[in-house]
Write a structure and sequence with these properties.
Layout (H helix, E strand, L loop, with lengths): L2 E12 L38 H13 L3 E2 L2 E2 L2 E4 L9 E4 L6 E10 L2 E14 L3 E4 L9 E4 L6 E7 L6 H17 L12 E11 L9 E6 L2 H20 L7 E6 L4 E7 L9 E2 L6 E2 L2 H9 L5 H12 L3 H7 L3 H13 L3 H19 L10 H12 L5 H14 L3 H8 L7 H14 L1 H8 L4 H13 L6 H12 L1
Parallel strand pairs: 12-13
Antiparallel strand pairs: 1-10, 1-11, 2-6, 3-16, 4-5, 4-15, 6-7, 7-10, 8-9, 11-12, 13-14
Length: 478
């Protein structure tokens, strides 16, 4: 490409509090419209905000987990703009004195490590939600649900250090894992707990100053973030190659069509008329409070990855997959305690287990197979009760109905045949029926041997011990 892609991401993460940031209303998702509201979050005249201390503590955890320094003095500001789901006509946020500054997150792309800088992390309240009548059978009308109004958020702003949609997706994967491990947010993208805005611009290769950027708003899945960025790079490239200029604007992504489209011209900071929030005092955070918060942090994904590689001798790739979520990492460690072959456990979790969970869109916490069930299955392979191929069939049945491995094996009659004389009879039968293939094998066509093994396994309905089949076939042919 003759253009360099420059990407910066702004991520909004909902903090894991029971009540809103400036009032006692519940943050519970799924309540009836406008149930979780009060005069404060509805911006009624004379109501005053009261700051939620738990929100601050969680925001501090977010800062420390992403290597940000915490400002000892920070304060809230009013960001003034009109939108139907913003009842006060302004949003309480942070502007010139944010909570966290100058952090970074490490990512890995194609085996190469890269540090992505964070400009700032600041606290703010969420707006409400507009529901358009087309979705409710009332075309031409729009409805406002203020339940989200006042939900506590942190906005995490990256430096423009990302250079592709793939890098952006990996950055978000790592950021989500950090927030999950630090118990800052539940990161549930389906419920809007994690949302991303992508700033994309192009500049000629070698140019220092940035090109004109567009901002694509409210992307709610990592896949959509990557696709929206890739589409926007493509679109901007065509505009520039035609000799036209990029318009600075806010865009939306249509996931059904796979395109971005213009929403409005992009506002600048001065358009919002920021000024200090007069109803909230500045926040002072001393070093002792910062240290206590830092000491209370759990083991974070990067630390856990390194420990898995060191302690369990598994590849860095495996450790990266297993630590993408705290629940998967915990499942792995519990399994290794019960079955001390870390690489085999890793293979089954990354292969069979995650395949089933991803297919269902299920979290591992709701999986019908627990570490005890998985390790019992692996032990049955070791003692020869079943072979690896049969174990996959057993695993699928365990996942479907939650039954233990031994019960599934008994019900389906899947016990492995290890009796040499029984397998010899099958081998002799197959050799007799496939005399031509036996001759081909003797004449040096070694691939035919796999066919003969397959025929024996088929005849035994997959229950013959594969190692014994291989040995007896070779013995008989020779």
């Amino acid at each position: 490409m003759k253009y360099e892609v420059v990407i910066g991401l702004e991520v909004h993460a909902q903090l894991k509090t029971d009540s809103k940031i400036f009032c006692a209303c519940s943050t519970k998702f799924g309540s009836p419209p406008n149930k979780n509201t009060c005069p404060i979050c509805l911006g009624m005249p004379g109501s005053l905000p009261v700051f939620n201390k738990t929100a601050l503590e969680l925001a501090m955890r977010a800062c420390l987990s992403t290597n940000c320094s915490i400002s000892p003095m920070n304060r809230f500001a009013r960001k003034n703009y009109f939108y139907p789901d913003l009842p006060k006509g302004y949003q309480i946020t942070q502007f010139e004195l944010p909570l966290g500054l100058s952090g970074h997150i490490n990512i890995q792309i194609n085996g190469t490590h890269k540090k992505i800088g964070l400009t700032r992390i600041h606290m703010e309240e969420d707006a409400g939600k507009l529901i358009h009548g087309e979705n409710l059978g009332s075309p031409g009308k729009s409805y406002v649900d203020f339940n989200r109004t006042g939900i506590p958020l942190v906005e995490i702003v990256s430096e423009p250090d990302l250079r592709s949609g793939e890098e952006a997706r990996e950055y978000l994967t790592q950021l989500k894992a950090i927030l999950d491990y630090a118990e800052v947010s539940d990161c549930n993208m389906e419920e809007g707990s994690l949302r991303c805005d992508a700033n994309v611009s192009l500049r000629p290769q070698g140019q220092q100053e940035f090109g004109t950027r567009t901002e694509t708003k409210n992307l709610n899945s990592f896949r959509f973030v990557q696709r929206a960025i890739e589409y926007e790079v493509d679109r901007q490239t065509k505009v520039l190659e035609q000799g036209d200029s990029i318009v600075q604007e806010t865009r939306l992504y249509d996931s059904n069509k796979g395109v971005t489209f213009s929403m409005r011209s992009k506002e600048e900071a001065h358009d919002y008329r920021y000024f200090p929030e007069p109803d909230l005092v500045p926040i002072e955070i001393n070093s002792e409070w910062i240290q206590r918060t830092n000491d209370a942090l759990p083991e974070l994904p990067e630390q856990k990855r390194k420990r898995f590689v060191k302690d369990y001798k598994i590849p860095e790739y495996d450790a990266g997959i297993l630590t993408t979520s705290r629940e998967i990492a915990d499942f792995y460690e519990k399994s290794v305690l019960l079955y001390t072959k870390p690489k085999i456990v890793s293979n089954w979790i990354m292969g069979e287990l995650l395949k089933e969970l991803n297919s269902d869109g299920r979290k591992i916490s709701t999986c019908p197979i627990k570490p005890e069930g998985l390790t019992d299955l692996l032990k049955l392979i070791d003692d020869g009760t079943i072979n690896s191929k049969m174990a996959k069939t057993v695993f699928e049945e365990m996942y479907l109905n939650g039954k233990p491995a031994k019960e599934v094996i008994k019900e389906k009659g899947l016990i492995q045949i290890t009796d040499s004389s029984a397998i010899e009879t099958l081998v002799d039968q197959i050799l007799l029926l496939n005399a031509n293939q036996v001759e081909q094998y003797k004449n040096g066509k070694e691939k035919v041997f796999g066919f003969l093994v397959g025929q024996v396994m088929k005849e035994s309905k997959g229950q013959a011990n594969p190692e014994l089949v291989n040995k007896l076939l070779k013995d008989r042919i020779s």
